[in-house]
Amino acid sequence: MNIKQIFKNNENWVHSKLNHDADYFNNLSKGQNPDILYIGCSDSRVSAEELMGVAPGEVFIHRNIANMVPNTDLSAMSVIDYAVLHLKVNHVIICGHYYCGGVKAAMESKDLGILNPWLRNIRDVYRMHREELNSILDEDLRYNRLVELNVQEQCINLIKTAEVQRAFRDRGLTVHGWVFDIHSGKLIDLKINFSEILENVMEIYHLD
Ligand SMILES: [Zn+2]
Asked: CA 181, CA 148: separation in Å to the nearest integer?
C-alpha cells in the first residue's frame, strides 16, 4: 500500500464532492445527526458505510474485534452512551460477519496473550449455546452459527444497559442483529425479536 497514494485519493475525493456540491464540507462541519449506531467488526473486509450504502453523517460507528459489547469495555460503553443519550439514535445495529477471525480464534484452543480476555467473551457465548453448537457436525456451519449467536448475545448485552432500556421506553429505540456474508456481499437480518428478548431479560436486568 502506497501511503502517498492515500493523500492523492483524498484530494480526488474532495474535488469530486465539491464538484457535486460546493457546500458539502461546509454542511458536514455544522454537526452530526445520525439516526443509527452501528457496532461491527474491525475486519478490513467489512466496510460499514460502503456495505450499507450510507453517506458521512448518517451512521455513528464503533468497530472492534468480533463486534463485541462487553459491559466492562469503556470504549464500547461510552459509544453507546453518547449515541443513545446525546445523539438520540433510534436504531442500534450489531453487525457480525461470516469468516470472522475473532470468532474463529475463540473456537480454537490457543493462548493468544492479551486477546485471551477479549475472546473469552465469545467463548462464553459458545458455553451458553454449547448444546446447539455441538450438535452441528459440520465445522463451517458451526462456525457460522457461532457468528450468529454472538450477534444475538451482543444484542442482549446492549439491552442490559440503562440507556438502551430507557430509550426503548421513551422513544421506541430498536436493536437489530445482522450478519454480513463476505462470500456473497449480502447483509442478512437475523430478525432478532427485540421486544421479546427485552421482556425475557428485563426480569433480571431491569434498571429503570
Ligand atoms: Zn470479524
From this structure: 11
Is 127 marked active-site?
Answer: no
Q: How far is ligand 1, taken at its centre, from the CA of residue 170, in Å?
A: 33
Single out the catalytic residue among 21, 23, 35, 45: 45
Residue with cell 474532495: 14
pLDDT digits 0-9 by tens, 89-146: 999 999 999 999 999 999 999 999 999 999 999 999 999 999 999 999 999 999 999 9
Query: Which pTM does this prediction carry?
Result: 0.94
Q: Which residues pair with 24 in a beta bridge?
A: none
All cell numbers assigned to 2: 502506497
Q: What is the CA(44)–ligand 1 centre distance, in A?
A: 9
Q: Are strands 59-64 and 174-181 parallel, antiparallel or unpaired?
A: unpaired
- The cell for 151 is 450477534
Verify whether residue 45 is a known catalytic residue.
yes
Task: Answer yes or no: 20 catalytic.
Answer: no
Contact between 91 and 173 under an 8 Å Cβ cutoff? The reply is yes
HEC sequence for the chain: CCHHHHHHHHHHHHHHHHHHCCCHHHHHCCCCCCCEEEEEECCCCCCHHHHHCCCCCCEEEEEECCCCCCCCCHHHHHHHHHHHHHCCCCEEEEEEECCCHHHHHHCCCCCCCCHHHHHHHHHHHHHHCHHHHHCCCCHHHHHHHHHHHHHHHHHHHHHCCHHHHHHHHHHCCEEEEEEEECCCCEEEECCCCHHHHHHHHHHHHCCC
C-alpha cell at position 184: 456473497
